[in-house]
Predict the structure.
Amino acid sequence: MAVVSRLWKFGKNTGCYFIGAGKLALNPSTPIPKTDVHPRMPAFPDTFPELIRMLPYRHYWKFMPIFRAIVFGHCLILPIYLMSSCLFSIFFINFILEDLSLLIF
């Protein structure tokens, strides 16, 4: 029965979509009807900062382990990326080569 009700809702919503598209195609100058948006439920975000503010971080952190892995991975890689100037890389490479030479010889 649940499958039938879902198929019915899908068909009804698809039909409403095509009826609305047909009405708009026949009379494109009709005004847009008012919508009832809850004050705590904003519309779809238009800009990237709005999208960031709307993300459910606590849900992602609790139920999606890949999100935690991405955050921790970035925390490990970002300092290396930020400190990867030419002088730092030359110093680091020389330091590694000196250690290797002490171990080998």
Notes: Helices lie at 2-26, 48-54, 57-63, 65-82, 86-104. The chain is about 70% helix and 0% strand. The chain has two domains: 1-33, 47-105.
